[in-house]
Design brief:
Blueprint (H helix, E strand, L loop, with lengths): L5 E2 L11 E2 L14 H60 L1 H16 L16 E5 L12 H7 L5 E8 L5 E3 L12 H7 L9 H5 L14 H10 L11 E6 L25 H16 L7 E5 L2 H13 L6 E6 L8 H11 L3 E5 H6 L1 H11 L3 E4 L4 H9 L4 E4 L2 H13 L5
Parallel strand pairs: 3-4, 3-11, 4-6, 6-7, 7-8, 8-9, 9-10, 10-11
Antiparallel strand pairs: 1-2, 4-5
Helix pairs in contact: 1-2, 7-8, 8-9
């Protein structure tokens, strides 16, 4: 006979469950299990399995993330180096300005993702301008006394390039060869492929440089003699702060006129010419009684950065503040690789190409937070680029045109420019 057992009630005490048959007759009580307890047993049986599976899933995800990040770091190092090399090659072939504009479009878009108005990355300073090679722009020839006089009207912070003449004088010169700045075609033919280190200081200063006003290469001694004497003149400009960029080393391969010395591949080992330049530069600073507290040393060579700090310590001149210069190739470095490069150089901070700063602002912020040294950005001549950099938190701007950018910087510091 067919029966239909109907659940009619349940004692929450768990003693019994009453059932009735289809014809109304009472049936024996079932075991003392309520509906709640039955569901509980099922959950208890399944819970350990779910916890185990969930834990295994979390471990698997963590392992995948670790492997992915490791692969990303390696890929970033390899791919970044290749991409940076390709970009630098394109800059040499098609012109740096065209390539910079192309890369800059993407970099500006990237920078807009970080609109916070952060603290500038220079200890003890607000936003400031650094006069690049004197900061005269097109008005005077770079690295000449007229250029530094002009730049010093706007800012006390002056960037200069030093090289060593054949007779051991520290001269202010940027390029590896002389051709770009020589005025006459005869001079270009005679000296265009020559290097500054191949001529004596007297021979260099006999050369006429481009420009309307008569300009000649200057020596570091001349610059220091002029600007350090100003501290004895009442009402003169504040004491100058010098950013000394080392440009020396006999190249390992032929170069063409106007080649940027920074484009060469150098070394990380001891170099006699670099050693002589470091020693001579510190000699000039000491003779002019310029404390190292008013000097920032900069170079792209980890060996030079490390060595200038060692020499300053050996001479008892006090700690030397040194930054390692980084170009667009380093914008694709991983954080680990960049920090390792800075450790090898004993660098306190970074002097970064402005497209690098726009591309990786958080990377450079981590450099500042970990090492505590300054982060300079070069070379920025347009107000819109300065605006993007200031919004990203970069306060030390190296520029060829400090006089043109000064009004904008004053408005930014005063808070009149929207952040």
């Amino acid at each position: 006979m067919w029966r239909l057992n109907v659940l009619v009630g349940a004692e929450m005490s768990g003693r019994s469950v009453w059932t009735m048959s289809g014809d109304g007759r009472a049936l024996p009580a079932l075991p003392a299990l309520s509906a709640v307890s039955v569901a509980g047993l099922r959950l208890q049986n399944r819970a350990p399995r779910r916890i185990v599976w969930f834990s295994m899933w979390l471990v698997a995800v963590a392992l995948v993330l670790v492997v992915a990040l490791s692969v990303y770091e390696v890929a970033l190092d390899i791919g970044g180096g290749m991409l940076g090399y390709m970009i630098n090659s394109a800059r040499s072939s098609f012109g740096s300005s065209s390539m910079d504009r192309c890369v800059g479009c993407f970099s500006h878009l990237y920078a807009l993702q970080s609109p916070e108005r952060a603290t500038p990355f220079v200890s003890g300073h607000h936003a400031m301008l650094v006069a690049h090679r004197g900061g005269a722009g097109d008005r005077f020839v770079e690295n000449t006394l007229p250029a530094f006089r002009w730049g010093n009207r706007t800012t006390q912070f002056m960037e200069l390039d030093v090289d060593l003449s054949s007779d051991g004088q520290v001269v202010l010169w940027h390029d590896e060869t002389l051709g770009r700045l020589l005025k006459t075609s005869d001079a270009k033919a005679a000296f265009g492929n020559r290097r500054a280190c191949e001529l004596s200081a007297r021979e260099l200063q006999a050369l006429e440089l481009v420009g309307e006003s008569a300009s000649r290469p200057a020596t570091l001694k001349e610059l220091l003699n002029e600007f350090e004497l100003l501290k004895a003149v009442p009402g003169s400009a504040p004491l100058a702060v010098y950013m000394v960029d080392f440009k020396s080393c006999v190249p390992s391969e032929p170069t063409t006129p106007g080649t940027d010395v920074d484009a060469r591949s150098h070394h990380d080992a001891a170099c006699p010419s670099c050693e002589r330049l470091i020693q001579a530069t510190l000699d000039e600073l000491s003779n002019a009684h310029v404390p190292l507290a008013r000097v920032v040393f900069s170079t792209k060579e980890p060996f030079v950065t490390r060595r200038v700090k060692e020499v300053a310590e050996e001479r008892g001149l006090g700690p030397a503040l040194a930054t390692l210069s980084c170009d667009l190739r380093h914008a694709w470095y991983s954080r680990r690789r960049l920090m390792q490069r800075l450790d090898d150089a004993r660098a306190d901070g970074v002097s970064a190409y402005y497209l690098f700063a726009l591309r990786r602002p958080r990377l450079l912020r981590s450099v500042y937070e970990q090492r505590g040294g300054p982060v300079f950005v070069w070379t920025v001549d347009r107000a819109e680029d300065v605006y993007s950099l200031l919004r990203a938190g970069f306060g030390a701007i190296i520029t060829n045109t400090p006089a043109q950018l000064e009004p904008f910087m004053k408005r930014w510091i005063a808070g009149d420019v929207a952040g």
